[in-house]
Amino acid sequence: MSIESFPEEKIPDEELLGFARTESRSPKGIIIELDLPDPSVEMRRNDSRGAVSPSLIEVGEPTPEQRRAIDQTTSVAGDTFERILGKPANWLWAARAFVADATPSQIRKIANCEFTRAIRPNRER
After folding, report:
1. Which end of the chain offers a freer environment for a tag, N or C, measured as fewer CB atoms within 10 Å?
2. Coil, strand, or helix at residue 122?
3. Each residue's pLDDT expressed in tens, for the chain with a length of 125 residues
4. How many Å apart are CA 58 and CA 31, to the nearest integer?
């Protein structure tokens, strides 16, 4: 059985990429970042003791159009990942990502989804 092709650039972690290239049946924890509109961020430069450093003022709420796009993408992605994984992936709104346990074959299928921006190892388990 040959390994299906997948966009390897979506898996920047070398160890996870190596795992995705295998036929292992053991799952690993992953974080699935979606290709969503970037949030607006307001920054201000602070002049503290002669050193200028940026500080976060506010992360803006998505516009209604962005919100609809985010909701639609997360809904389609959630349904797709559930079909691939055989169970729901967990959506983390603050991280704007899903977390799941996936085998190499499942990781490759997730990487092939157009709405997947990146897949990273979940080291916080």
Report:
1. N
2. coil
3. 578 899 999 999 999 999 999 999 999 999 999 999 877 666 666 666 656 566 656 667 778 888 899 999 999 999 999 999 999 999 998 888 999 999 999 999 999 999 999 999 998 75
4. 25
Q: In degrees rounded to 5, what are phi and psi of residue 121?
A: -70, 145
3-state percent breakdown (helix, strand, coil) of the chain, nearest 5: 30, 30, 35
- Locate 107 and state its tokens: 């990781």
CA–CA dist 50, 62 (Å, integer): 35
Tokens 């002669």, residue located: 50
Q: Which two tokens stand for residue 17?
A: 């990429």
